[in-house]
Amino acid sequence: HEAENGPSEEAYTEDSLAQWTGLTRVGTTGGAATTNITLNSAYKSVGTIGTYQYQPTLGVSESWIKIIASYKAGQAVITPPVVGTAIFIQSIGAASAKTSGTILTFTVPVGGVPAGHTLITRVMHDYTSGGPTMSDVRGNTYTRDRTAANSGTTIRMSIFSCRVTTALQTGDIITVTASASVTARVAAMDEFANVLLPISIDAQNGLAGASAAPTLPITTATANDLLIGMVGVESDSADTYTEDTIHQWTSLTRIGTTGGASNTNVTVNGVYRAVGSTGTYTYAPTLGVSATWTEFLIAYKAS
């Protein structure tokens, strides 16, 4: 393109001899010619390397600046991320309470859960010095893979995995038990297939903070993983929450308590992603208001 120190009504002849095609011309007008500026431009698509000239003609002699830029062309090549083999099956359910107690329960939905599938449970409640435990009526084992309190010791968050060895039937009860009586408590459970058995953790990370922008990376060492992310927030479930879709996460069930001051509540958010290559993955959702939070990322090896 070429910029000149002159009004837009002055004559201008495009360089058609060199096969340039003019683009929109824009300029100012009024007063002395030298108080105006006018921008002229053109484009040309070429299929060979070489030297190309841009030589338009101004109607009168003026001060000017000329720039030619060459941008590489061609069909865009987009390489999609490699997807892992782990599969989300269903949400088993979510539970919440805001009365003093220790228990939350899930009722297995119609169809049950077959042996060989994996259950991932996200739990959050008011602070206790120890972590919660889980059990079901069929005797399956639930492993607490990570638990942590925030730095202010006002909340505790935990994540459990369970390889279902004895199939769960419709209506079976699964129980979460806090280590001490608490008021606000929530839990959400999801079913996955193609998680490596026995369950093996490739990598994990955790962080606690107070802001509206929790952010956490995880670096995997195995090429085929199920990534689970969760953010537990000391706030009302009605508070705005924006999921991190930029990093290609898929949301899991969100569950929280409500009522009273916002910080008397707890809300747990979750995501998953099946990945087929090693790398560093980031989970960065956005909270509607600044609040106390705890964030986990766990990479379970897939099969």
What brief labels describe this structure?
303 residues, mainly beta, 6-stranded antiparallel beta sheet, 24 strands
Describe this structure in words.
There is one protein chain. 0% of the residues lie in helices and 48% in strands. With 303 residues, the chain is mainly beta. The protein has 2 domains: 1-74, no CATH class; 87-301, no CATH class. Strands 9, 10, 11, 12, 13 and 14 form a 6-stranded antiparallel sheet that branches. The radius of gyration is 30 Å and the shape is elongated. The mean pLDDT is 94.
Brief rundown of the structure:
0% of the residues lie in helices and 48% in strands. The chain is mainly β. The model has no long low-confidence stretch (mean pLDDT 94).
Sheet with most strands: 6 strands, antiparallel
Roughly how many Å apart are the termini? Answer: 56 Å
Structural class: mainly beta
Share in helix: under 10%
Give the radius of gyration: 30 Å
Give the rounded overall mean pLDDT: 94
Shape: elongated
Number of domains: 2
* pLDDT < 50 stretches: none
Present the secondary structure layout:
Blueprint: E1 2-4, E2 12-13, E3 21-22, E4 26-27, E5 38-40, E6 42-43, E7 57-58, E8 64-66, E9 87-107, E10 118-126, E11 133-136, E12 143-149, E13 155-163, E14 173-193, E15 201-211, E16 216-219, E17 225-233, E18 241-242, E19 250-251, E20 255-256, E21 267-275, E22 280-283, E23 286-287, E24 291-301
Antiparallel strand pairs: 1-5, 1-8, 2-7, 3-6, 4-5, 9-14, 10-13, 10-14, 11-14, 12-13, 15-24, 16-22, 17-21, 17-24, 18-23, 19-21, 20-21
